[in-house]
UniProtKB/TrEMBL annotation:
Record keyword Iron-sulfur present: yes
PANTHER family linked: RADICAL SAM DOMAIN PROTEIN, TUNGSTEN-CONTAINING ALDEHYDE FERREDOXIN OXIDOREDUCTASE COFACTOR MODIFYING PROTEIN
Membrane-crossing residue ranges in chain numbering: none
Domain Radical SAM core residues, every copy: 7-221
PROSITE patterns: RADICAL_SAM (PS51918)
Keywords annotated in UniProt: 4Fe-4S, Iron, Iron-sulfur, Metal-binding, S-adenosyl-L-methionine
Keyword Iron-sulfur among record annotations: yes
SMART domains hit by this protein: Elp3 (SM00729)
Cofactor entry: [4Fe-4S] cluster
InterPro entries for the chain: Aldolase_TIM, Elp3/MiaA/NifB-like_rSAM, PqqE-like, Radical_SAM_PqqE_MftC-like, rSAM, rSAM_sf
A GO molecular function held by the record: metal ion binding
Protein name, UniProt field: Radical SAM/SPASM domain-containing protein
NCBIfam families: TIGR04053 family radical SAM/SPASM domain-containing protein
Length: 376
């Protein structure tokens, strides 16, 4: 796992089983609908896709949506994958579909982990963001079922203008719930997501530093999504804390090739995962994207094997070469471990190789140029 070559195989595959969902979330990437799309991959196509995923060095597989529980065959698909040896997690929506019986069934087939979204410490904040009254209570009920059945819990939270003022309370709630991982998402203006709901670049930086400090005192892991520049904050902080020259040299090595396995607090990946670089998203109809937040299609699994799309699509190949990045991302010393959110760059500029627009960091080479011009 730790020597996985992202040019050949992804670290994680996100599969949107369906776009059907009973919620109406303000930020929904999928712009989910209440009814299932008749074009969804069939059960037989699903099994074929799982076979292809497994052959790509068996990456992590996450069932998402919409709401994966809107597919009546979700547990049959999960059972097929798990019996094959694939590690499967699921991120269902907190709706009446999440019954104790459904969770029990998931446990019986061997589902590794459930992830629920919780976007505020109160019903008022969470339900507003999820666009559905009662969603907070349904989430808390579902979490209680997980605890009763001893299934590991992951909490997903989208940071936005709606909850940035209650992050301390949110952290306390996540700890009280006994989760194993807090996955913190940073909004990308795609789908229903709006730029007005995003926190500012300076606020991104403040939240990153807050997250790093929090990660050192809580009993659960913290990882980020669409916040690649958090890795730069972690790396800089750890370099400051280095106790000897050998540790400093290790961190310098990280800058050269992006290998992050030696650093905790950066998620489970051995290298800096980014859109199309260790990460691949498959839509409900088989379209393949670098991520669910970067709507530039690389192919379709009904027409081309997933491995061929991931390895040979020009889009994916470009995204795996940080030296192609433009602007300050292209000259930044952190481009191999960070690289900025390619999704957010695309949403802001229409070019997935452009600079991360919500990063305040000035690369060393640009700082030196400015100093030289000041002396001239």
């Amino acid at each position: 796992m730790w020597d996985k070559d992202f040019n050949e195989n992804p670290f994680i595959v996100i599969w949107e089983l369906t776009r059907a969902c009973q919620l109406n979330c303000l930020h929904c990437r999928a712009e989910a609908q209440y009814k299932r799309d008749p074009r969804e991959l069939s059960f037989e196509e699903a099994k074929k896709l799982i076979d292809e995923i497994y052959e790509m060095d068996n990456p992590l597989l996450v069932f998402t949506g919409g709401d994966p529980l809107m597919r009546p065959d979700v547990f049959e698909i999960g059972k097929y994958a798990i019996e094959k040896g694939v590690r499967v997690s699921m991120t269902p929506s907190a709706t009446p579909n999440v019954t104790k019986e459904a969770i029990q069934k998931a446990k019986e087939i061997g589902l590794a982990r459930w992830a629920f979204s919780l976007d505020g410490p109160t019903a008022e904040i969470h339900d507003h963001f999820r666009g559905t009254s009662g969603s907070f209570q349904l989430t808390m009920d579902a979490i209680s079922y997980l605890k009763e059945l001893e299934i590991p819990l992951q909490i997903n939270t989208v940071i936005s203008n709606y909850n940035i003022h209650v992050l301390d309370e949110m952290l306390e709630l996540v700890e009280q719930l006994g989760c194993v991982l807090w996955s913190v998402f940073f909004l990308v203006p795609t789908g229903r997501g709006q730029e007005k709901d995003m926190i500012s670049p300076v606020e991104h930086e403040r939240v990153f530093r807050w997250l790093y400090a929090a990660s050192k005192r809580v009993p659960f892991d913290i990882k980020t999504t669409a916040a690649q520049h958090y890795r730069r904050v972690v790396l800089l902080e750890k370099r400051k804390e280095a106790r000897n020259k050998e540790q400093v040299i290790q961190y310098e090595h990280v800058l050269k090739d992006g290998t992050t396995g030696l650093i905790d607090g950066l998620g489970r990946a051995p290298k800096g995962v980014n859109d199309g670089n260790g990460f691949v998203f498959i839509s409900h109809i088989g379209d393949v994207y670098p991520s669910g937040l970067l709507p530039v299609k690389g192919g379709n699994v009904r027409e081309t094997p997933l491995a061929t799309i991931y390895r040979e699509s020009p889009i994916f190949q470009q995204l795996r070469d940080p030296n192609l990045y433009k602007g300050k991302c292209g000259v930044c010393e952190f481009r191999f471990v960070c690289g900025g959110s390619r999704s957010r760059a695309y949403a802001a500029t229409g070019d997935y190789l452009e600079s991360e627009p919500y990063c305040v960091y000035i690369p060393e080479v640009l700082r030196k140029k400015k100093e030289e011009s000041n002396w001239a």
